[in-house]
Write a structure and sequence with these properties.
Radius of gyration: 21 Å
Largest sheet: 7 strands, mixed
Number of strands: 11
Length: 259
């Protein structure tokens, strides 16, 4: 290949732009080969189809578990393989055919990708135990913004971060962000340690309880954190169509279960 991939000096070696493009494409090809091997093994064990679902942001574990259980019960011969990836990697994989669909909290994904809202969760405030705001049963956004915040990392939880950022922009005060956490567990640990307050979905707070963190609802109209299903803008396969329909029905089934 008559292309320069590296720039070498007496002290260092680094990729050229062509080299970086080649590396990214090589990684994609190797990933596709790994997926082909896994699909062949799945077929050998009796599966008649495979759905490759990418997960980005902080997906509601209760609804995801219920959705996967329903898929296993109704279509046991379709293997569902999950990939936890950042949103940018998910959208790239959807366009290149690496994934069949994805779940994320991003409302926009760019050209060639269909985005469909599938469920929403009420936002609550994660407050350290013994914090003065616990005197309030509901916390106003204007009060919350007076304290430092611990937010999800924008590169790891991009879709969720965008939704929280839009909410914070409704208050005419610049928030003080003490830390960006790369996981929900770390975010709760930092809140418990007193670094700041945080936003979380009600369902996540129910599942991932921390003894030193208290959930408080926001004052005023409920603010929701919405999860979307992303898929390529092409004719979906029959298994994918059924998966999309089940994901879209998860909102109603979860609401019915909670009443």
């Amino acid at each position: 290949m008559d292309v320069q991939l590296f720039e070498r000096t007496t002290r260092s070696t680094r990729l050229t732009w062509a080299g970086q493009v080649f590396l990214d494409e090589a990684k994609r090809v190797l990933s596709a080969v790994d997926q082909a091997k896994a699909s062949a093994k799945a077929a050998a064990t009796g599966y008649r189809g495979t759905l490759r679902i990418a997960l980005s942001d902080s997906i509601d574990p209760l609804r995801l578990a219920a959705l996967l259980a329903q898929c296993r019960e109704e279509e046991p011969d379709v293997e569902i393989r999950l990939f936890e990836v950042p949103l940018a990697e998910q959208t790239k994989g959807l366009r290149s055919g690496l994934y069949d669909a994805g779940l994320a909290q991003a409302a926009e994904a760019g050209e060639g990708i269909v985005v469909q809202s599938v469920w929403s969760d009420p936002l609550v405030i994660a407050v350290p135990a013994r914090h003065p705001l616990l005197a309030h049963k509901r916390i106003a956004l204007a009060e919350l913004i007076r304290y430092p915040l611990v937010l999800c990392h924008p590169g790891i939880c991009e879709g969720g971060y965008r939704q929280i950022e839009r909410i914070l922009r409704t208050v005419d005060v610049e928030p003080v962000v003490a830390e960006h956490a790369v996981s929900f567990d770390l975010m709760m640990t930092l809140v418990a340690a007193g670094y700041g307050l945080s936003f979380a979905s009600k369902s996540h707070m129910m599942v991932c309880r921390h003894p030193e963190v208290v959930a408080r609802p926001l004052a005023g109209r409920p603010l929701m954190l919405t999860t979307h299903l992303l898929r390529p803008n092409t004719e979906p396969s029959e298994p994918l169509s059924r998966f999309v329909a089940r994901a879209a029905a998860a909102e109603n089934s979860n609401s019915s279960a909670g009443t």
